[in-house]
Amino acid sequence: MQRQSDNINFFKELMCKIKRSDEAAFTILYNRLWERMYALAFSLLKNKDLSKDLVQEVFIDFWERRLSIESTNIEAYLIKAIRFRVYKELRDDKLNKTTIDLLDIVKAPHASGILDNLQWKETKKSIDKAIANLPKKRQQVFSLSRYSELNNYEISQKLGISKRTVETQISLAIRSIKSEMGL
Length: 183
Known about the structure:
Blueprint: H1 2-19, H2 23-45, H3 48-64, H4 74-107, H5 114-132, H6 136-146, H7 152-159, H8 163-181
């Protein structure tokens, strides 16, 4: 019990120093938690480079936001942050794979004959119909993403909505389109 209390006090003291922009304290924190955070990221992603990048991103974000962080348990905060960042990466990666599949259907007809061309036109017609059946705002977000090729941030700025709302709308649009097409 004493060891756990010492550990909590150690991290509290470290956080106080980091809030005063003490780079040496940040380095101590980094060295103490990097391996554990990397191991967690790698256990979920199975990708060394991506895991390292995500841990770096979490630490960079932590340093940049150090003055506004209110957590007293900085160890738990950083472990939770890497877990969240990994889950976000997995979600975005899954969304990107689904998007690529849909884009292949919409944009890349590999038709080599009249029958293939006809099948592609029918598929495109089905996708267009599914898009037309989306709620207007979702349709607008999806079209800006897929046809105007704007990224989520650009769409959020253009429409005055959050980036997270854009991500959600695109995900729901893809789900609706796939469902309507029986995929």
